[in-house]
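Sanity check

After download, print the first record. It should look like this:
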Amino acid sequence: MLIATGKVTEVGQEPLNGKATTHYTGELSADEIASMAGKGVTQEQLDQVKQKLATAGLTSERIDVWVDADQLVVQRTETGNTKAGAFKATVLYSDYGTPVTAPAPDASDTVELAELAKLGKGGATS
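Expected structure tokens:
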């Protein structure tokens, strides 16, 4: 997504988790985020994504990625601000190609996106 916008800057070479990586960074607007997330969805679904981002108050997001010599992402960090406050999400990637099985979480351990949006408006969930 970041590379496709052309708004990427190479930060430099950095060791990460024992691997040599190249660090890239860029900032995307909410419209760019929605458009990239909207690949393969209907216009109505894309409009819903844009509305959810607007409701959350997300105007832009900084994305940093670290890529190894095989052009595989080793880490991705996303930061931004919403009406509910600042956020930072980091994902580490490893073991590409390894088969994985994971059970679905119990319903009590999940929440709908609409419920999270309510929290940003000062609402509460039970």
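If your output differs, re-run the checksum step. Summary of this record's structure: The longest helix spans residues 43-56.
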